[in-house]
Amino acid sequence: MTAPKSGGVGVAAARAAAAGPRTVLITGVGRGLGRALALELARRGHAVVGCSRSTDHVRSLEAEIATLARHFLTVSDVRSDSNMAELAKTLVEKKQVPDIIVNNAGTINKNNKTWNVSAEEFDLVVDTNIKGTANVLRHFIPLMIDKKHGIVVNLSSGWGRSAAAEVAPYCASKWAIEGLTRSLAKELPPGLAAIALSPGVVNTDMLNSCFGSSAALYQSTEQWAPKAATMILSFSLDDNGASLT
Prior knowledge:
Layout: H1 9-18, E1 23-27, H2 32-43, E2 47-52, H3 55-64, E3 72-75, H4 81-93, E4 100-103, H5 119-147, E5 150-155, H6 168-187, E6 192-197, H7 205-211, H8 221-234, E7 243-244
Parallel strand pairs: 1-2, 1-4, 2-3, 4-5, 5-6, 6-7
Helix pairs in contact: 1-8, 2-8, 4-5, 5-6
């Protein structure tokens, strides 16, 4: 597990503050890490554009997020390439092409031996965690190239760098994110960077799915979000291709 190449917590905080307000696209913004990060970034004065599959989750976040008028939250599914194409078109029209993308949307299989995971459940993990990320990249990287700057943060996991029993589909998907990000980093033109970021162990619905009641022993999303926001906002071109935590 590595820290940012760009320095320690103090340096990261200074760089995050110095860069000024930015537009940040967060997928899976309706709950968990995505929701907490959106609220934290909005509190700091950044513009949040976000999508979630759930209308209820989007409406709930809209009710809580500060200065809603400067943000854009919508119901959209990363698993759908056409949904991501439409979202990209909308953000161009609204002049809200993101400076930072956080590919956060993800899901995990219910604990089970690999051979007992149904085809439908395996597909859901792959379609969300891998293909969903690719759908976002397909439609937003060209917009960042046009702007000549942008930071792409693909959420990985400790299980994208190690393995555990009964979560093979999830591990496979996050190992894929690590490889995808490293390849992407080699393809990006000057001005853009891609980073694989493991969020650490955080008490979310997904953690509850595999850890059960012991998930409560870990940090909450509210404790996690300020640290994550500072780190993400501090990323620079020097971090291109890095696997960070």
